[in-house]
Write a sequence for this structure.
């Protein structure tokens, strides 16, 4: 009797072992996944777009007279001083003695003088605005010492001082250019009055209106040119700006003074910059996917010193990262771990080798990280790039 019971016990144990082996064989193996540990970090919401550099104030040197342009000896990239002779025009004396030409030269001189007066008034206005902005800043700095004004107001007035200083520079540049136009127009008119020998060609020096670098030579070879024909472009490479076109929906959150990082410009590190202007009118642009988009130009000033951006020139491609919002010391999760769960967001948390779905509250979402208001805590591990094979309760194994 004992022998039969013992045999039945052995058979039961054997059947249990077989059943356990069958269950183990049918049980799904853990899915290998990539895991990330939750920590605290600064999360930034940015608009990342590519842009182009451009010289902020460029000057197109035009032919003051109709005549034959001699070959330009300068090359692109050559530095020129204000007043330096750029090229020479050989004007036909018959053209100089023509009453119509003389009338055009007189009108051009009058227009240049009017422009010079307008630029002088603009310089006076810009100087007054710059002085007022500096006075407001000094007043706010004294009040800020006693915590009477907010930090945001102080930063706003610091930005106003910077912007008005830039506007004053632009106005003075335009004033110098206007004075050059008056000088050239007056010299051209004087040359027309001085011609007494119809057989002699009158040589006229075309000079640089401002100091800078030759950006482009529009007419290199010797050739006849009409009055007002563009000859060269001159600009200052130390005064660069960046133009970036962004989606109109993103442009709503961008304001003058917004911090910007200029990346992938060809040098080491990122360049500090700030938004100067968001243009008010949008334009239609066809994306690479063939979709019509409404885009807006954002003009950015590079605030990094010129020594840090050596080699950066006009028309260079750069990447601009425009900062919209940031959250310091936030519970940060990689955006690759997030997925939509109805109207909200969720992640899969690794709970001792088992994936557990958990809803989270996203307060700020950046390009790489998202700030979590509730649902996660530092030290927990989440699954990155969860696919369709991952569900609540799935066994996982970290790579």
């Amino acid at each position: 009797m004992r022998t039969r019971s013992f045999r039945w016990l052995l058979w039961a144990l054997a059947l249990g072992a077989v059943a356990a082996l069958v269950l183990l064989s049918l049980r799904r193996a853990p899915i290998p996944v990539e895991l990330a540990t939750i920590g605290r970090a600064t999360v930034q919401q940015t608009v990342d777009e590519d842009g182009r550099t451009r010289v902020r104030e460029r000057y197109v040197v035009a032919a003051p007279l109709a005549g034959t342009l001699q070959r330009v000896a300068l090359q692109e990239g050559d530095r020129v001083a204000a007043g330096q002779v750029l090229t020479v025009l050989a004007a036909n004396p018959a053209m100089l003695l023509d009453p119509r030409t003389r009338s055009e030269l007189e009108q051009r001189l009058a227009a240049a003088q009017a422009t010079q007066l307008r630029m002088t008034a603009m310089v006076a206005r810009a100087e007054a605005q710059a002085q007022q902005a500096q006075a407001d800043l000094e007043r706010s700095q004294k009040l800020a010492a006693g915590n009477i004004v907010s930090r945001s107001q102080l930063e706003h007035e610091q930005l106003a001082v910077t912007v008005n200083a830039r506007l004053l520079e632009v106005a003075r540049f335009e004033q110098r250019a206007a004075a050059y136009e008056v000088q050239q127009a007056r010299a051209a008119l004087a040359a027309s009055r001085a011609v007494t020998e119809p057989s002699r060609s009158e040589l006229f020096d075309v000079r640089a209106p401002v100091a800078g670098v030759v950006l482009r030579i529009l007419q290199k070879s010797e050739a006849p040119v009409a009055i007002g024909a563009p000859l060269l472009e001159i600009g200052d490479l130390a005064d660069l700006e960046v133009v970036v076109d962004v989606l109109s929906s993103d442009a709503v959150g961008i304001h003058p003074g917004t911090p910007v990082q200029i990346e992938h410009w060809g040098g080491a590190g990122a360049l500090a910059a700030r938004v100067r202007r968001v243009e008010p009118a949008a334009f239609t642009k066809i994306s690479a996917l063939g979709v019509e988009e409404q885009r807006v130009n954002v003009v950015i000033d590079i605030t990094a010193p010129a020594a840090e951006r050596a080699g950066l020139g006009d028309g260079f491609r750069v990447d601009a990262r425009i900062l919209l919002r940031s959250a310091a010391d936030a519970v940060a999760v990689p955006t690759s771990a997030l997925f939509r769960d109805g109207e909200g967001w969720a992640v899969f948390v690794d709970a001792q080798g088992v994936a557990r779905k958990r809803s989270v509250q996203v307060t700020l979402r950046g390009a790489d990280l998202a700030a979590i208001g509730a649902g996660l805590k530092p030290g927990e591990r989440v699954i990155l790039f969860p696919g369709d094979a991952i569900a609540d309760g799935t066994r996982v194994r970290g790579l």
About this structure: The chain has a mean pLDDT of 83.
